[in-house]
Amino acid sequence: MPNWGGGKKCGVCQKTVYFAEEVQCEGNSFHKSCFLCMVCKKNLDSTTVAVHGEEIYCKSCYGKKYGPKGYGYGQGAGTLSMDKGEGLGIKHEEAQPHHPTNNPNASRLAQKVGSADGCPRCGQAVYAAEKVVGAGKSWHKSCFRCAKCGKGLESTTLADKDGEIYCKGCYAKNFGPKGFGFGQGAGALVHSQ
């Protein structure tokens, strides 16, 4: 349809925008009075606008609606916000609590998950923010514990056997050499050549 009005159409109200009142953003034209955040209605300019498709937002509302979610993505240093973005039309699902298990066949469980990013202890996906690598596998930080005593481990303080991880003490007690002469002191057997 020909545009007989002589100007471009506003990206918000679809009325003709004349040169004196025009604001351009990403190839679209807007009235100065229409160049507002779609959520909070704040006036925008080239430094405060964030575009998503045909929609325009202030950077704060854009971040709440389309930005990263979760721990560490606050509004500044040390800020914790309880705003879940319901005013922006965001719907949240309740997160299921994490319950690590002491599965004796952890390696079989990891095979069921079908990828190296499945935690061998609980079977859930392991994402980069919560990943600890040990014994050649990816674990959740909360699952990276001794299978016997539950002590938290580090990649340098673990021993692994049959796809499960143990602290050095539990590994020695359960899988180390047994019997007379396997002590640590003066009575220990010594191999001499």
TrEMBL record:
Subunit structure: Interacts with ASCC1; ASCC2 and TRIP4.
Superkingdom in the source lineage: Eukaryota
Keyword rRNA-binding: no
Pfam family, one: LIM
Assigned keywords, A-Z: Acetylation, LIM domain, Metal-binding, Nucleus, Phosphoprotein, Repeat, Zinc
Places the protein is found: Nucleus
GO CC annotations, alphabetized: nucleus; Z disc
Species name: Varanus komodoensis (Komodo dragon)
InterPro entries documented for this protein: Znf_LIM
Function, as annotated: Could play a role in neuronal development.
GO annotation, biological process: muscle tissue development; sarcomere organization
Presence of keyword Acetylation: yes
Stretches assigned to coiled coil: none
Phylogenetic classification of the source organism: Eukaryota, Metazoa, Chordata, Craniata, Vertebrata
PANTHER family: CYSTEINE AND GLYCINE-RICH PROTEIN 1, RHO-GTPASE-ACTIVATING PROTEIN LRG1
Molecular function, one GO term: metal ion binding
Domain LIM zinc-binding residue range list: 8-68, 117-177
Name recorded for this polypeptide: Cysteine and glycine-rich protein 1
